[in-house]
Amino acid sequence: MYASEQFRVDSDILLVADKPPPEVTVERFTTMGPFDWDSILEVSAKNIALQCLDQAFVMTHDSVQHIRIEALAGQYDDKKSTKGVFRATALKDFKVGELMLTPYSLINPEGLLEMKSSAGAETQCDKSQYIMRTYLSVIPKESKKSKKPKKVSRKGGNGGTPPGSDEEATRDKKMKVSFYVKSPLDKLKTDQDCARISPLWMLSKTTKQAEVNMAMELVCFDFLPMTPISVKVPNPVKKALFSICLQCGVNNRKIKKGEALRFSMMEGDCCSSDESTDGD
Questions:
Q1: What is the average pLDDT value for the chain, to the nearest integer?
Q2: Which residue of 78, 123, 161, 188 lies most exposed, with the fewest beta carbons within 10 A?
Q3: Is residue 204 in some structural domain?
Q4: Distance CA 259, CA 52 (A)
Q5: Strand ranges inside the chain, DSSP E
Q6: Domain presence at residue 277
Q7: Number of domains present in the structure of the chain
Q8: Is 189 within the bounds of a domain?
Q9: Cβ–Cβ contacts within 10 Å for residue 149, how many?
Q10: Cα(first)–Cα(last) distance of the chain, in Å?
Q11: Is 29 exposed, middle or buried (0-12, 13-18, 19+ CB in 10 A)?
């Protein structure tokens, strides 16, 4: 047997050492500002514009159904070709203003819209055989409240922008968001693609005034809010918050069945630079 050794141990070393008290972490919060409503308009305006194009095109179902589009045979046999030659004819008689065609495309619909800059000419009367772009604007209802700035006294005020002033009218005008709706003709690769775009893009222009029966006109709509049906929403919005002004093709004289549909070669791609009548 091995001999066992004994040791004398100081009991103090078996005690748990004192730990320093834990540091108290104080959570600090910073008050954030309210939601940035001023920045939502430009972001949502494009979504509203795309919805408007959908709804407006559905509204013109009867016009679209009574137009025959013919494409030049074999023009897409060459895969590199993007130039279209089309002929549009009426399949029934139309009274003045009864035929309406809106810009639309199932081919790259998100790419149709291009933000319009505030500078530059609005009308492009180029030599293109077809309408290459149209105009669309999204206008908040409140931006139309100051159509004619009123002269108000600034004496005794506490600063800021007086209601009805020139500054307020300028601010409201800037709230409008405008787009160009671009033609998708350069995206067509097959004859079948022609059935995926609005006939508006395939109506040709003519230099003969007697053949002109279509014109571009600005048509305005109210963009209505959603209506809750299965749940109660506090303070639901019942009135339209936005107006949409969309440039459409409308017949400016009677059209007989079998007649070709044509714009004037002088028809501009977009409406004139005076847009003060939007939504009036």
A1: 78
A2: 78
A3: yes
A4: 30
A5: 67-71, 86-90, 100-101, 113-115, 133-140, 177-182, 204-206, 214-223, 242-251, 262-264
A6: no
A7: 1
A8: yes
A9: 16
A10: 113
A11: exposed
Torsion, CA 206, CA 69, CA 53, CA 213, rounded to 10: 30
Q: Look at residue 28 and tell me if it is in a domain.
A: no
**What b-and-e string marks burial along 218-246, b requiring 16 or more CB atoms within 10 Å of the CB?**
beebebeeeeeeeeeeeeeeeeeebbbbb
Q: Is the pLDDT of residue 271 over 60?
A: no
SS3 label, residue 216: strand
Are 207 and 265 spatial neighbours (Cβ–Cβ below 8 Å)?
yes
- pLDDT tens digit sequence for 24-74: 888 888 998 898 887 888 888 999 999 999 999 999 999 999 999 988 776
Which residue segment(s) compose the domain that 87 sits in?
A: 39-115+124-151+161-228+237-264
- For the stretch 156-192, pLDDT in tens is 344 444 444 455 444 455 578 999 999 998 888 888 8
Is the pLDDT confidence value at 244 over 50?
yes
Which residues have a Cβ under 8 Å from the Cβ of 216 and sit 6 or more positions away?
A: 131, 134, 247, 248, 249, 250, 263, 267, 268, 271
> Are 124 and 220 a contacting pair, CB within 8 Å?
no
Per this entry, what is the length of the chain?
280
Task: Give the 3-state secondary structure of residue 106.
Answer: coil
* φ, ψ at 194 (rounded to 5°): -65, -25
User: Is residue 105 within 8 Å of 215, Cβ to Cβ?
Assistant: no
Q: Write down the pLDDT at residue 147.
A: 47
Distance CA(270)–CA(258), nearest Å, equals 28
